[in-house]
Amino acid sequence: MYVWAKIPEPYAAMGSLEFAKKLLQDAKVCVSPGIGFGDYGDTHVRFALIENSDRIRQAVRGIKSMFRADGLLAAKSVAEQPES
């Protein structure tokens, strides 16, 4: 199964290849750049949902962390804080 995800507006000018590189470097998440699927795909990336649910949650946490570092999300809510 795959998710064909539109690149968030603040990153849109990067194109899919540079955004995919950013996800790999900053979020530790590997995606396929949409440009590899044709010229019209450059506004998207493809997530392959081939891992177990724990690894997918880990990827989501990494992406959220990247968004926070870039100022696109607020700090973690109380519900997201790990239990002591």
Description of the molecule:
The chain has a single domain (2-73), classed as Aspartate Aminotransferase, domain 1 (Alpha-Beta Complex). 36% of the residues lie in helices and 14% in strands. It is α+β, with helices and mostly antiparallel strands and 84 residues long. A three-stranded antiparallel beta sheet has the order 1-3-2. It has two helices and three strands, in the order βαββα.
Short descriptors:
single chain; 84 residues; alpha+beta; Aspartate Aminotransferase, domain 1
Compact description:
Its cofactor is pyridoxal 5'-phosphate. With 84 residues, the chain is an alpha+beta fold. The chain has helices at residues 15-27, 53-69, and strands at 2-6, 32-33, 44-48.
Task: Map the helices and strands.
Elements: E1 2-6, H1 15-27, E2 32-33, E3 44-48, H2 53-69
Antiparallel strand pairs: 1-3, 2-3
CATH class: Alpha Beta
CATH architecture: Alpha-Beta Complex
Mean pLDDT: 94
| Topology as a string of helices (H) and strands (E) | EHEEH
Strand order of the largest sheet: 1-3-2
Low-confidence stretches: none
Fourth-tier CATH superfamily name: Aspartate Aminotransferase, domain 1
